[in-house]
Amino acid sequence: MLAVALLFLGQFALYTYLRPFLETVTRVEVSTLALLLLITGGAGLLGTYVIGLVLRTRLYSVLLALPLAMAAVALSLTVFGHSLVAVGVLLAAWGLLGTAAPVGWWTWLSKVLPEDAEAGGGLMVAVIQLAIAAGATLGGALFDASGYRLTFAVAAAVLGASALVSATGQRGGH
To answer: What are phi and psi of 118, to 5 degrees?
Structure first.
């Protein structure tokens, strides 16, 4: 559950503040902003489909790889944030990864708690909601105080911590 909390905390520390990033760093107009968010959402649809194919054989490696890949995207946004094309590609990757991750964790839950999936699911929903709120709050405080670079770097670090906790849990059998 800690890995799940860190994943959503890191994800929403960044994602909640994409619009001000896109408006001030990438310098997009409203129509381009809408297109970039549509690309992110479309890639998310693809991510929910593709992850189902991968999870059948690679569940634990996916739970480790997704937050690491999201961290790489977060850091890449700080480097390539002024390039509209690069940002478009990175946001497509973010959408693909960000929607695949919850599917992976719900699959994990059904495997580790097959008899108590409902109770575990209730706990996981609570953890996710708390993490989203904490991530958005942390991201906002960082964005206001220091701008997008620190915000996205912290989001990447938290996502990396999610992968680390996931890896630790895999060694423990859960």
So the answer is: -65, -45
Alpha-carbon 169 to chain mean position: 19
Q: For the residues of 83-152, what is the DSSP string, one character each? A: -HHHHHHHHHHHHHHHHHHHHHHHHHHHHH-SSSHHHHHHHHHHHHHHHHHHHHHHHHHHHHHH-HHHHH
Number of domains in the chain: 1
Those residues whose C-beta lies under 8 Å from the C-beta of residue 31, and which sit 6 or more positions away, are: none
| Digit-coded pLDDT (tens) for 154-169 | 999 999 999 999 998 7
* The pair of three-digit structure tokens given for residue 82, joined into one six-digit string: 């002024």
Alpha-carbon distance of 46 to 29, in angstroms, equals: 26
- Confidence band, pLDDT 50/70/90 cuts, at residue 118: confident
Domain that holds residue 135: 2-171
- CATH number of the domain where residue 81 is located: 1.20.1250.20
Question: Over 90: is that where the pLDDT of 127 sits?
Answer: yes
Query: Count of CB atoms within 10 A of residue 122's CB?
Result: 11
